[in-house]
Amino acid sequence: MAEQLSLQLEPAMPRSGDVAPMWPTALADPFDSPDWLFEPTWGGHRVLAFLEPGATAGSGAVRIVDARGTEFGEQLPELAGLAVRVAARSPVLDGELVVVDLHGRADDEALRERLSGRPGRPVAFLVFDLLHLDGRWLLGQALDKRRAALRRVLRPGDEVVMVPAITGEGRALHAAVSAQGIAGV
User: Fold this and answer.
1) What are the backbone angles phi and psi of residue 100, rounded to the nearest 5°?
2) Cα 32 to Cα 28: distance, rounded to the nearest angstrom
3) How far apart are CA 162 and CA 169, in angstroms?
4) pLDDT band at 8, cuts 50/70/90?
5) Which of 22, 27, 133, 173, CA to CA, is 20 to 30 A from 59?
6) Which of 46, 54, 58 is nearest to 16 (CA)?
7) Which residues fall within 8 angstroms of residue 39, CB to CB, at 6 or more apart?
């Protein structure tokens, strides 16, 4: 019997230029449709989080990159441990950075200050989507399947939350977020 050599290869890590945050589509009026998934947005700063494999689970480096390629890791130490919140070796998460005020509403000025490196209230990463998982792009899958995978791998905490979504009821969600002072759907 011949001997066999077995190697475990690290999954290929995507680079920040390989993909950009998924932007919501602006429409004039809210609508309902069973074919659409509706999510609230706080109007924060859209970014991707690249979690790189580490020596042990949850120890990999975290890169937070916006659509222009600007990295925010050094300005946001509260997100440095994001890898412990994700049960995957090398995911890419799509979401937005937000600083909330005492009433739970987005504070754009506080976010600008934090992104420029000044101290202030902590930044939260609100996750919409899982774009890449352990060496595989998921973009060819339907959004509901990617969100199901995101629910399986993400352990929410103070610094990271999966944004809730509802199917079909865009008008009701729009009315609810408008009443709460949230940016939109």
Assistant:
1) -105, 150
2) 13
3) 19
4) very low
5) 22
6) 46
7) 24, 128, 163, 164, 165, 185
